[in-house]
Amino acid sequence: MEIPTIRGKLTGMAAPEFIEKCLTSLAEATFVRLTLTRPRTPGLQRVLGRLVQLREHPHLSLTFRYPTRDVTKNIPLAEVATWLRGELPANFKGAVLSTTNGDWQLTPKRLILHPPAKRATPPRSHDVVKSRLLDESAQQWLRRLKVSPDKDRQINRYLEIVAPLANDAHTIVDMGCGKGYLTFALWHVLRVKVTGVEQRTELVAAANDLAREIGATGLEFVAGTINSVELPAADALIALHACNTATDDALRRGVALGAKLIVVAPCCHQEVRPQLGKPEPLADVLRHGLMAERMAEWATDGLRVLFLERAGYRTKVIEFVESEHTPKNLMIVGIRERPPLATRENIERFKAFFGIERHALD
Ligand SMILES: C[S@@+](CC[C@H](N)C(=O)[O-])C[C@H]1O[C@@H](n2cnc3c(N)ncnc32)[C@H](O)[C@@H]1O
Q: Which residue in 14, 62, 67, 312 is a FRET match for 7, CA 20 to 30 A apart?
């Protein structure tokens, strides 16, 4: 990997040089994206720039990100130089330009070149941002739940994956549903019986009030724990970011309720980390706490996959939203399909290798 090099010295020189790099990368089609950071405008978090094709003309599409909304402005390529020269030095304290040749980071004093994070340019179609499964009528509950832009992206990405898989389901349970963003979203798109389960009674009461208010027939929220709440059989069970071993409780309940589809996106992992051994030849690396932490997460989710396969589910492991939106972006999808694809022996061998004595799914 290249060592970052320092270019430019003074504030006055670095910003114009950075703008020139932007214009060159746009002209030479090496542009990946632009992020303007540390804005002076109160409330504005950052501005994200993508190159898009609009009515057959290239534009720089700028998304101004605020805590609860995005504002988009599309600038024709011929006007980008004027816009950047007027806005960047005056209104932002930092910026990052990603190109396929290298990533340029502008700080108040200098310009730093990093190796490129992406070596290919993204699609230029404007439709990429427009593909939303939630139509305008979803605003009545999205607004009330105060969905942030990041959460909105997460919900839409999640719907893109889950809605087609759950298309045949008549009953869906959302375990550890929190305020019910995804519960409302699934109900909105599929219009089937959707039950959110949540241990925090005040969240359940608020979600039920909102469901009643918008006349959401079939949508209800139940107070209780994933392990013990009383539920009838369900066709699909989902659990997004249920804390620690609550994800395992959800997997177990999904199997017990006879769900044909189980989708979980794990949250924090605490059970395996203290048990994780240092098997050879990984020992030298696992003495680093962070590496051991990540290996424990990997092993926890690996075991979840094996347990699901043991229970007769075909599994897929996918990244459901880009890591810049949430680091908790691993999703395990299980589709019931007998016979079992993993054996108890597979699981025991895996556990023995890492020195894991107990797992919540044992
Ligand atoms: C990080 S939030 C995620 C909420 C929601 N699924 C989402 O993605 O927006 C986790 C939620 O799970 C709930 N939870 C954790 N363990 C639970 C359990 N054993 N039974 C019921 N709810 C639980 C918490 O109270 C919290 O509201």
A: 62
